[in-house]
Amino acid sequence: MIPLEYYLILSAFLFVTGVTGVITRRNAIVVFMSIELMLNAANLTFVAYSSFFGDVVGQLFVFFVMAVAAAEVAIGLAIIIALFRNKETINIDEINILKW
Amino acid sequence: MTLEQVLFGFFALVAVVSAVMMITGKNPVVSALFLVLNFGALSGTYVLLRAQFIAVVQIIVYAGAIMVLFLFVLMLLRPDREQSYFKDKPQMKLLAIIVGVLMLAQIAYAVLSTTTGKVAEEASRIETGTIENIGRELYTTYLLPFEAIAFVLLTATLGALVLSKKKLD
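^ Those are the sequences you sent over. The predicted structure of the assembly is below.
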Protein backbone atom coordinates (compact mmCIF):
# COMPACT_ATOMS: atom_id res chain seq x y z
CA MET A 1 0.00 0.00 0.00
CA ILE A 2 1.24 3.47 -0.84
CA PRO A 3 1.69 5.63 2.29
CA LEU A 4 -0.60 8.63 2.63
CA GLU A 5 2.38 10.99 2.69
CA TYR A 6 3.28 10.15 -0.92
CA TYR A 7 -0.08 11.38 -2.13
CA LEU A 8 0.17 14.51 0.02
CA ILE A 9 3.64 15.34 -1.30
CA LEU A 10 2.47 14.81 -4.88
CA SER A 11 -0.46 17.11 -4.17
CA ALA A 12 1.85 19.71 -2.61
CA PHE A 13 4.11 19.64 -5.66
CA LEU A 14 1.18 20.11 -8.05
CA PHE A 15 -0.14 22.97 -5.93
CA VAL A 16 3.21 24.75 -5.87
CA THR A 17 3.55 24.24 -9.62
CA GLY A 18 0.18 25.95 -10.00
CA VAL A 19 1.27 28.85 -7.79
CA THR A 20 4.47 29.26 -9.79
CA GLY A 21 2.43 29.25 -12.98
CA VAL A 22 0.14 31.98 -11.67
CA ILE A 23 3.01 34.25 -10.67
CA THR A 24 5.14 33.76 -13.78
CA ARG A 25 2.81 33.50 -16.76
CA ARG A 26 1.31 36.51 -18.53
CA ASN A 27 -1.31 34.82 -20.66
CA ALA A 28 -4.60 35.07 -18.74
CA ILE A 29 -5.79 31.67 -20.00
CA VAL A 30 -2.61 29.92 -18.85
CA VAL A 31 -2.93 31.65 -15.46
CA PHE A 32 -6.43 30.26 -15.35
CA MET A 33 -5.21 26.76 -16.16
CA SER A 34 -2.70 27.05 -13.33
CA ILE A 35 -5.57 27.81 -10.98
CA GLU A 36 -7.28 24.63 -12.20
CA LEU A 37 -4.08 22.76 -11.38
CA MET A 38 -4.19 24.12 -7.83
CA LEU A 39 -7.82 23.07 -7.44
CA ASN A 40 -6.87 19.60 -8.58
CA ALA A 41 -4.05 19.42 -6.07
CA ALA A 42 -6.53 20.23 -3.32
CA ASN A 43 -8.86 17.56 -4.69
CA LEU A 44 -6.09 14.98 -4.51
CA THR A 45 -5.55 15.77 -0.84
CA PHE A 46 -9.27 15.44 -0.17
CA VAL A 47 -9.49 12.08 -1.93
CA ALA A 48 -6.32 10.76 -0.27
CA TYR A 49 -7.55 11.55 3.23
CA SER A 50 -11.05 10.33 2.41
CA SER A 51 -9.74 7.03 1.16
CA PHE A 52 -7.28 6.48 3.98
CA PHE A 53 -9.79 7.22 6.71
CA GLY A 54 -12.63 5.36 4.97
CA ASP A 55 -14.85 8.43 5.15
CA VAL A 56 -16.86 9.34 2.06
CA VAL A 57 -17.32 13.03 2.93
CA GLY A 58 -13.96 14.02 1.41
CA GLN A 59 -15.05 12.64 -1.93
CA LEU A 60 -18.34 14.53 -1.71
CA PHE A 61 -16.33 17.69 -1.22
CA VAL A 62 -14.32 16.89 -4.34
CA PHE A 63 -17.63 16.55 -6.17
CA PHE A 64 -18.63 20.04 -5.01
CA VAL A 65 -15.20 21.47 -5.82
CA MET A 66 -15.55 20.13 -9.36
CA ALA A 67 -18.94 21.79 -9.75
CA VAL A 68 -17.56 25.09 -8.45
CA ALA A 69 -14.54 24.74 -10.77
CA ALA A 70 -16.87 24.27 -13.73
CA ALA A 71 -18.84 27.38 -12.76
CA GLU A 72 -15.60 29.30 -12.23
CA VAL A 73 -14.26 28.33 -15.66
CA ALA A 74 -17.47 29.38 -17.38
CA ILE A 75 -17.46 32.79 -15.69
CA GLY A 76 -13.71 33.31 -15.96
CA LEU A 77 -13.52 32.51 -19.64
CA ALA A 78 -16.50 34.79 -20.28
CA ILE A 79 -14.62 37.59 -18.49
CA ILE A 80 -11.52 36.86 -20.57
CA ILE A 81 -13.58 37.04 -23.78
CA ALA A 82 -15.15 40.33 -22.65
CA LEU A 83 -11.68 41.70 -21.87
CA PHE A 84 -10.36 40.62 -25.25
CA ARG A 85 -13.22 42.38 -27.00
CA ASN A 86 -12.39 45.63 -25.23
CA LYS A 87 -8.60 45.56 -25.00
CA GLU A 88 -7.64 43.21 -27.86
CA THR A 89 -5.26 41.43 -25.53
CA ILE A 90 -5.25 38.80 -22.80
CA ASN A 91 -1.80 39.71 -21.54
CA ILE A 92 -2.37 40.38 -17.86
CA ASP A 93 0.39 43.00 -17.78
CA GLU A 94 -1.58 45.17 -20.19
CA ILE A 95 -4.93 44.69 -18.48
CA ASN A 96 -4.59 47.34 -15.78
CA ILE A 97 -7.79 49.36 -16.13
CA LEU A 98 -8.41 49.09 -12.40
CA LYS A 99 -4.96 50.39 -11.57
CA TRP A 100 -5.14 53.85 -10.11
CA MET B 1 7.75 -3.80 -5.94
CA THR B 2 4.03 -4.35 -6.21
CA LEU B 3 1.89 -3.38 -9.15
CA GLU B 4 0.29 -0.63 -7.07
CA GLN B 5 3.65 1.00 -6.41
CA VAL B 6 4.63 0.82 -10.07
CA LEU B 7 1.33 2.38 -11.12
CA PHE B 8 1.58 5.10 -8.50
CA GLY B 9 5.11 5.94 -9.60
CA PHE B 10 4.00 6.09 -13.22
CA PHE B 11 0.98 8.31 -12.58
CA ALA B 12 2.88 10.58 -10.20
CA LEU B 13 5.70 10.99 -12.71
CA VAL B 14 3.28 11.79 -15.54
CA ALA B 15 1.40 14.26 -13.32
CA VAL B 16 4.56 16.06 -12.20
CA VAL B 17 6.14 16.23 -15.65
CA SER B 18 2.95 17.37 -17.37
CA ALA B 19 2.35 20.05 -14.70
CA VAL B 20 5.87 21.43 -15.17
CA MET B 21 5.56 21.29 -18.96
CA MET B 22 2.23 23.10 -18.69
CA ILE B 23 3.61 26.13 -16.88
CA THR B 24 6.81 26.29 -18.93
CA GLY B 25 5.35 25.76 -22.41
CA LYS B 26 5.25 28.81 -24.67
CA ASN B 27 2.22 27.82 -26.70
CA PRO B 28 -1.07 27.99 -24.70
CA VAL B 29 -2.64 25.16 -26.73
CA VAL B 30 0.26 22.85 -25.82
CA SER B 31 -0.16 23.93 -22.19
CA ALA B 32 -3.84 23.02 -22.33
CA LEU B 33 -3.08 19.57 -23.75
CA PHE B 34 -0.50 18.95 -21.04
CA LEU B 35 -3.14 19.90 -18.49
CA VAL B 36 -5.44 17.23 -19.97
CA LEU B 37 -2.61 14.71 -19.54
CA ASN B 38 -2.20 15.87 -15.95
CA PHE B 39 -5.92 15.38 -15.27
CA GLY B 40 -5.71 11.89 -16.75
CA ALA B 41 -2.78 10.98 -14.51
CA LEU B 42 -4.63 12.35 -11.46
CA SER B 43 -7.62 10.23 -12.41
CA GLY B 44 -5.31 7.22 -12.32
CA THR B 45 -4.18 8.08 -8.80
CA TYR B 46 -7.84 8.37 -7.78
CA VAL B 47 -8.38 4.80 -8.96
CA LEU B 48 -5.39 3.72 -6.87
CA LEU B 49 -7.05 5.46 -3.93
CA ARG B 50 -10.23 3.40 -4.56
CA ALA B 51 -12.23 6.52 -5.45
CA GLN B 52 -13.76 5.08 -8.62
CA PHE B 53 -16.61 7.57 -8.95
CA ILE B 54 -14.33 10.60 -8.55
CA ALA B 55 -11.88 9.12 -11.06
CA VAL B 56 -14.58 8.82 -13.71
CA VAL B 57 -16.04 12.25 -12.94
CA GLN B 58 -12.54 13.72 -13.15
CA ILE B 59 -12.22 12.49 -16.74
CA ILE B 60 -15.75 13.50 -17.75
CA VAL B 61 -15.87 16.94 -16.11
CA TYR B 62 -12.27 18.14 -16.11
CA ALA B 63 -10.63 16.45 -19.08
CA GLY B 64 -13.88 16.51 -21.02
CA ALA B 65 -16.01 19.54 -20.33
CA ILE B 66 -13.65 22.09 -18.76
CA MET B 67 -10.73 21.55 -21.11
CA VAL B 68 -12.99 21.70 -24.16
CA LEU B 69 -14.12 25.10 -22.90
CA PHE B 70 -10.49 26.20 -22.53
CA LEU B 71 -9.56 25.00 -26.01
CA PHE B 72 -12.61 26.69 -27.49
CA VAL B 73 -11.65 30.03 -25.98
CA LEU B 74 -8.04 29.56 -27.10
CA MET B 75 -9.32 28.90 -30.61
CA LEU B 76 -11.57 31.97 -30.54
CA LEU B 77 -8.98 34.38 -29.16
CA ARG B 78 -5.89 32.86 -30.75
CA PRO B 79 -3.47 34.68 -28.43
CA ASP B 80 -0.04 35.57 -29.72
CA ARG B 81 2.83 33.59 -28.35
CA GLU B 82 3.65 35.46 -25.19
CA GLN B 83 7.19 36.69 -24.96
CA SER B 84 8.97 35.23 -22.00
CA TYR B 85 8.31 37.11 -18.82
CA PHE B 86 11.92 36.58 -17.88
CA LYS B 87 13.40 38.27 -20.93
CA ASP B 88 13.05 41.80 -19.57
CA LYS B 89 13.12 40.77 -15.91
CA PRO B 90 15.63 37.92 -15.53
CA GLN B 91 15.83 38.28 -11.77
CA MET B 92 12.13 37.33 -11.57
CA LYS B 93 12.89 33.78 -12.70
CA LEU B 94 15.11 33.22 -9.67
CA LEU B 95 12.48 34.81 -7.44
CA ALA B 96 9.72 32.58 -8.81
CA ILE B 97 11.83 29.47 -8.24
CA ILE B 98 12.66 30.59 -4.71
CA VAL B 99 9.00 31.21 -3.90
CA GLY B 100 8.05 27.81 -5.31
CA VAL B 101 10.77 25.90 -3.45
CA LEU B 102 10.05 27.69 -0.17
CA MET B 103 6.35 26.97 -0.44
CA LEU B 104 6.97 23.32 -1.30
CA ALA B 105 9.34 23.00 1.67
CA GLN B 106 6.74 24.57 3.92
CA ILE B 107 3.94 22.22 2.84
CA ALA B 108 6.24 19.19 2.87
CA TYR B 109 7.34 20.06 6.39
CA ALA B 110 3.72 20.38 7.47
CA VAL B 111 2.87 17.03 5.88
CA LEU B 112 5.83 15.13 7.26
CA SER B 113 5.69 16.56 10.77
CA THR B 114 2.07 15.55 11.39
CA THR B 115 1.23 12.01 12.30
CA THR B 116 -1.56 10.30 10.47
CA GLY B 117 -4.42 8.87 12.48
CA LYS B 118 -5.76 5.36 12.21
CA VAL B 119 -5.92 4.18 8.63
CA ALA B 120 -9.03 2.34 7.49
CA GLU B 121 -8.85 -1.31 6.49
CA GLU B 122 -8.63 -2.36 2.89
CA ALA B 123 -12.15 -3.81 2.74
CA SER B 124 -13.83 -0.64 3.96
CA ARG B 125 -11.62 1.51 1.70
CA ILE B 126 -12.93 -0.24 -1.39
CA GLU B 127 -16.49 0.31 -0.20
CA THR B 128 -15.99 4.03 0.39
CA GLY B 129 -15.73 5.41 -3.11
CA THR B 130 -18.54 3.55 -4.85
CA ILE B 131 -21.31 5.44 -6.61
CA GLU B 132 -23.84 3.79 -4.30
CA ASN B 133 -22.12 5.10 -1.19
CA ILE B 134 -21.53 8.59 -2.55
CA GLY B 135 -25.06 8.85 -3.93
CA ARG B 136 -26.59 7.85 -0.63
CA GLU B 137 -24.66 10.50 1.29
CA LEU B 138 -25.24 13.12 -1.39
CA TYR B 139 -29.03 12.72 -1.44
CA THR B 140 -29.49 12.44 2.31
CA THR B 141 -27.04 14.31 4.52
CA TYR B 142 -25.74 16.66 1.84
CA LEU B 143 -28.96 17.36 -0.03
CA LEU B 144 -28.94 21.08 0.71
CA PRO B 145 -25.36 21.70 -0.56
CA PHE B 146 -26.29 19.62 -3.60
CA GLU B 147 -29.23 21.89 -4.37
CA ALA B 148 -27.09 24.93 -3.70
CA ILE B 149 -24.44 23.76 -6.15
CA ALA B 150 -27.14 23.34 -8.79
CA PHE B 151 -28.10 26.96 -8.23
CA VAL B 152 -24.45 28.04 -8.47
CA LEU B 153 -24.14 26.29 -11.82
CA LEU B 154 -27.33 27.94 -13.09
CA THR B 155 -26.06 31.36 -12.02
CA ALA B 156 -22.72 30.69 -13.67
CA THR B 157 -24.43 29.74 -16.93
CA LEU B 158 -26.48 32.92 -16.91
CA GLY B 159 -23.45 34.98 -15.93
CA ALA B 160 -21.34 33.55 -18.72
CA LEU B 161 -24.09 34.33 -21.24
CA VAL B 162 -24.47 37.91 -20.03
CA LEU B 163 -20.75 38.59 -19.75
CA SER B 164 -19.77 37.28 -23.15
CA LYS B 165 -22.66 38.88 -24.98
CA LYS B 166 -22.53 42.58 -24.36
CA LYS B 167 -19.60 44.92 -24.41
CA LEU B 168 -18.12 46.26 -21.22
CA ASP B 169 -17.88 50.04 -21.10
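Chain B has eight helices and no strands. The radius of gyration of chain B is 21 Å.

Shout if you want it in another format.
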